[in-house]
Amino acid sequence: MVASSALVQELRRAIRLGKVLTSPEELIVYGYDGTWLERTPDVVVCPASVAEMTAVLTIARQYRVPVIPRGGGSGLAGGSVPAEGSIVLSTTLMDEIVEIDRESLIAVVQPGVINATLQAAVERLGLFYPPDPASLNQATIGGNVATSASGPRCLKYGGTKDYVISLQVVLASGEVLHLGSRSHQPGPDYHLLQTFVGSEGTLGVIAEVTVRLLPRPSARGTVMATFDRLDDASRAVGAILDAGIVPLALEMMDRVTLRCVESYLRAGLPIESEAMLLIDVDGDAASVAEQVALVGRVCRLGGASIVRPAETPEESAQLWRARRSTSSSFGRIRPNKLGEDISVPRGAIPSMVRAVQDIAQRTGLLIPLFGHIGDGNLHPNILCDLRDKDEMARVAEAAQAIFAAAIERGGTISGEHGIGLLKRDFLPASLDPQAIRVMQRIKQQLDPCGILNPGKVLG
Ligand SMILES: Cc1cc2nc3c(=O)[nH]c(=O)nc-3n(C[C@H](O)[C@H](O)[C@H](O)COP(=O)(O)OP(=O)(O)OC[C@H]3O[C@@H](n4cnc5c(N)ncnc54)[C@H](O)[C@@H]3O)c2cc1C
After folding, report:
1. Which atom of ligand 1 is nearest to the CA of 144?
2. What is the pTM of this model?
3. What separation in Å is there between the alpha carbon of 309 and the centre of ligand 1?
4. Domain 334-416 in this protein, CATH class
5. Ligand 1 pocket: which residues have CB below 6 Å?
6. Where are the chain's structural domains?
7. Per-residue model confidence as pLDDT tens digits over 343-392
């Protein structure tokens, strides 16, 4: 469907500082995210202010046209993929860091600020914003809030949800809702703010975000440990925590992942090992040295074949580059991937890892496994070719089996990427039906015309 010229004209009248895009070559860029799903929107609007955002929502409601909020388009659940005949509302022009208050340890940002930009800005002032999705160079803070993003450092410091203290949200009605305050404590509002964190653009458009910051730890160390048995690597995770260390990050890459990344980066990764752990610790210099030594000892005792602390920041950066290249490297092996995002209790990690390996063998698919193992958040990526119908039937079978295995173990089908379009059909199996009914009532209350990101999460 092509957007009516009356709608486009009205949008153009309302959006003076921002942009309204309608040419096919512009629209196509806003039609996909990090999944294989895509659909070209009818019109893209890039508002330059909260007032312009409000105008978009007001006009969309009047015309009953769906609005798809979009940040960096790095989502892995199809959340920002347009619905039929929709307006994509892109936050790219609202990318200003409004304020960094050093004394109160607060940053106020517009939704389109890129995560890495905020990190760099606060670090220059000796401060620290922990949530660090591996997509930090592309993902926006608005998108991070909407998906409740996590990242490697969330093991020690918590995820986006733990840092948002105030939000401005434009509702489907066009009204602007202010939630929270500049205090680091939650206000007396039923914790409504948290209802919007992780709401994936279905309840409101995040228009401004206030996050709390921390003082930046002065030192950081990285240890790489390889294991000939994946089970030993999984158990070493528990042993590190039992030793009284909460690492800044505790990441795992299995052998299939190591081989994919090595063929992409040629970084000299240990491709014969069944698993590699990447462990970061932080604090002051003395405590970092102590933690690095203790992590090394625990890993050796736990059966690690190689334990190598990074000698320099460059060596550490190289190891982290390998971890952050996992997704890109899979493209060299197969053209498509279904990236899963299950999370299980820590004690269930070894059996979950074995379950994924069994599913890979049974379905004849390549399923590299990596993730924030310290949190129990694992990313089995099912590599495939969308053009191969037989293979895609096996992909569906494998995805379902992985979700079922996670739920059986007391886990969830999404640790951090959200539900979007890709996982919505699995939601009923993973939530109490009463919880789904309450979610539907909240959606109905806040968006009675169903114009905000329709079809996502609840279907
Ligand atoms: C290589 C790679 C690595 C990744 N690693 C991680 C990781 O470690 N941890 C993690 O959590 N995620 C990760 N992701 C997933 C993704 O980056 C996150 O979900 C991120 O938070 C999405 O941000 P975005 O700005 O790109 O949002 P988009 O993809 O544009 O949108 C995602 C969802 O948020 C909604 N949305 C976006 N902006 C707004 C807004 N202002 N108001 C309301 N709704 C909005 C959209 O409608 C959509 O539902 C990774 C993705 C890739 C491609």
Report:
1. 21
2. 0.95
3. 32
4. alpha beta
5. 33-34, 68-76, 79-80, 91, 111, 133-135, 138-140, 142-144, 146-147, 149-151, 200-201, 205-206, 327, 416-417, 420, 453, 456
6. 5-90, 97-215, 219-327, 334-416
7. 999 889 889 999 999 999 999 999 999 999 988 899 999 999 999 999 99
> Largest alpha-carbon pair distance within the chain?
70
Query: By the 8 A CB rule, do 49 and 436 touch?
Result: no
pLDDT at 60: 97
Distance from Cα 75 to the centre of ligand 1, integer Å = 4
Choose one of 76, 96, 423, 457 to mutate for the ligand 1 pocket test, by most ligand atoms within 8 angstroms of C-beta. 76
What residue's CA is closest to ligand 1, atom 36?
143
CATH class, 219-327 region: alpha beta
Q: Would you say domain 5-90 falls under CATH 3.30.43.10?
A: yes
User: Using an 8 Å Cβ cutoff, are 203 and 196 in contact?
Assistant: yes
- Say which residues have a Cβ less than 8 Å from residue 30's Cβ, sequence separation at least 6: 21, 41, 44, 70, 73, 82, 88, 90
pLDDT tens readout for residues 397-441: 999 999 999 999 999 998 889 999 999 999 998 899 999 999 999
For the purposes of burial, counting CB atoms within 10 Å of the CB of 86, is it exposed (0-12), middle (13-18) or buried (19 or more)?
buried
pLDDT of residue 148: 97
pLDDT tens figures, 127-137: 999 999 989 99
Architecture of the domain whose range is 97-215:
2-Layer Sandwich (3.30)
